């Protein structure tokens, strides 16, 4: 095993392409209850870049290794008296920092030390591209549908940003569970794509009235459960479109993606609708979920996601591999609208399987 490794490190808060530097660092040593992981692949999520800009819900101590979500790798060493894994095991590392909770090692480096309670073994037939994207978006979709809202078969689920990664996974999961979906998109050319994916109904806000269309689709019974990743006026309309007693869980704010003014990060709810129809609007943040559930419950949920992906119920588009040295190009791709494949930093011999 080498004594040093490459790591992509941000010296301070700022634009990722400006503050990140490729550094050589010592390979860390695991303590009890922890494992040394040799990273094989790790994605670049929008949230990773927001963390570096200081616009996310937590801030690491700088200088900080980038990547605060997930990776796949192999166990290279175990701390003293550490059980449950063995050297050579291929594992997913759910590196999402718990809030509240301790700092977690960034994933944009060749080796990292992780709590073994955050490591999930993955089967060999699951590609590195799939495995390194298990612990954030597919997990979020599962939690929103089955835990946060507990949507039942035959019960309408309304969602915004249906064309997003989580939105597509929600459609796949809902179809598997017998849950009909009303899917909101902002472009007319996305409608047929969402229908082909399995979305039961699609509403295009570019030329359709959201409240009117939801009422037409759901009829007198209405819709009682919704997930929103847009916030702003669209998020407010989703709340207004729900039946009395309805609930919307907000897990993102795409309408304010590059907004820096905190006063603009809003959901302008209709007070009469919320009060007189006793509706609920609440947030979901994966970091806080990890901070409130037990490690056992977290691994159980991750195991469920692993099975759904391994069985083909949930499909994750193959990522596009980049070496660390090409980080500026990878970050630029991550921020490109309608970029296609998600950029992944890869190590060793690149991605397993035929994703690359």
UniProtKB/TrEMBL annotation:
Q: Does the keyword Lyase apply?
A: no
- Name the domain of life this protein comes from: Bacteria
Q: Which UniProt keywords apply?
A: NADP, Oxidoreductase
- Stretches assigned to the Enoyl reductase (ER) domain: 15-345
Instruction: Note the Pfam families from the entry.
Output: ADH_N (PF08240), ADH_zinc_N (PF00107)
List the InterPro entries.
Answer: ADH-like_C (IPR013149), ADH-like_N (IPR013154), ER (IPR020843), GroES-like_sf (IPR011032), NAD(P)-bd_dom_sf (IPR036291)
The answer to whether the entry has keyword Transcription regulation is no
Q: What is the protein name stated in its UniProt record? A: Zinc-binding dehydrogenase
